[in-house]
Amino acid sequence: MRIFIDSADLTEIRQVLEYNIISGITTNPSLVLKVFKDKGENSFKDFLAEFSKKPEEYSQKHDLRNLEVSVQVTETEYSKIIDQGKRILGVYDDFSEKSKMPTNTVLKLPLTRDGIRACEYFAKKGKKTNITVCFTSNQALIAALAGATYVSVFLGRTEDNFEGTSEEKTLVSKKLIEDTKKVFDNYKLTTKILGASIRNLVHIDICSQAGVDAITISPKLFYQMIDSELSISAAQDFVHRWEESNLIL
Ligand code: E4P
User: Fold this and answer.
1) SS (H, E, C) the chain
2) From the CA of 37, how far away is ligand 1's center (Å)?
3) Residues 133-153, buried b or exposed e (16+ Cβ, 10 A)?
4) Ligand 1, from 2, 6, 7: best to mutate by most atoms within 8 Å of Cβ?
5) Ligand 1 centre from 84 Cα, in Å?
6) Which of 2, 95, 118, 137 has the smallest number of CB atoms closer than 10 Å to its CB?
7) Which atom, in ligand 1's list, is nearest to the CA of 194?
8) Which residue has its alpha carbon closest to ligand 1 atom 2?
9) Catalytic (active site) residue 108
10) Which residues of the chain, if any, have pLDDT below 50?
């Protein structure tokens, strides 16, 4: 299962990329707003530019161009989504042209009637798409038939909209992921299931157990996947025992 980072904060993105196991970045209007609201209208363009630099221009050790970056449209009506989608892809094409390197933009479109039609439009033109705000396996099936590259299936928000105990909520999001995986397996659909709106480690477990293609998580959750008190104390225990000896490694 691949891991994407759900963030628009380049500082925290770069820190997570130190691990070199991240496959992409997903953004949404809320994440972008959170980081860029005080930085002026060109800030998001600067953010996109970071993902398209030539190796020699890029001083960090990681080449961000290898990452897929999902950028979400904010328009809701078909023709406006098409125009905005073209503009977003145009920004990347621009950078791509300058750097002579292909960019990895994934156009993120809403799972609405207009969003699905827009997905068909961009998919037919060979553009990568990520259909977002998916809450049922039926919707995911439609996204796949529309040619989406990814369908972002929302666990956390599914639970937010279900009244019940936390165990019951978990069962609902688990069923959503398992049902979607089953439908995609039944028909050998090539659209990739992206577990999204992931709030905790249980959600990650649900996705990996079901065998989804990828998840997108906050940097905080990424570190939580690594950290364990048991691991830290067991590692310290070995170090202490070693230090008590006179051996040299
Ligand atoms: C990712 O692509 C989604 O936009 C994101 O995971 C949504 O998360 P939220 O439901 O916590 O806003």
Assistant:
1) CEEEEECCCHHHHHHHHCCCCEEEEECCHHHHHHHHCCCCCCHHHHHHHHCCCCHHHCCCCCCHHHCEEEEECCCCCHHHHHHHHHHHHHHHHHHHHHHCCCCCEEEEEECCHHHHHHHHHHHHCCCEEEEEEECCHHHHHHHHHCCCCEEEEECHHHHHCCCCCHHHHHHHHHHHHHHHHHHHHHCCCCCEEEEECCCCHHHHHHHHHHCCCEEEECHHHHHHHHCCHHHHHHHHHHHHHHHHCCCCC
2) 18
3) bbbebebbbbbbebbbbbbbb
4) 6
5) 21
6) 2
7) 2
8) 26
9) yes
10) 54-55, 58-60, 100-101
Residue where the block lists tokens 């989406």 = 148
Residues in the chain: 249
Atom 5 in ligand 1: which residue has the minimum CA distance?
A: 197
Question: How many angstroms separate the CA atoms of 188 and 98, rounded?
Answer: 38
Nearest CA to ligand 1 atom 6: 197
Which pair of structure tokens corresponds to residue 240?
């202490």
**Which of 31, 151, 197 most suits a substitution to test ligand 1, by most atoms within 8 Å of the C-beta?**
197
Pick the atom of ligand 1 nearest to 28's CA: 4
Instruction: Report pLDDT for 44.
Output: 67
pLDDT of residue 100: 47
Nearest atom in ligand 1 to the alpha carbon of residue 26 is 2
Placement of tokens 């999001």 in the chain: 173
Per-residue pLDDT, 88? 85
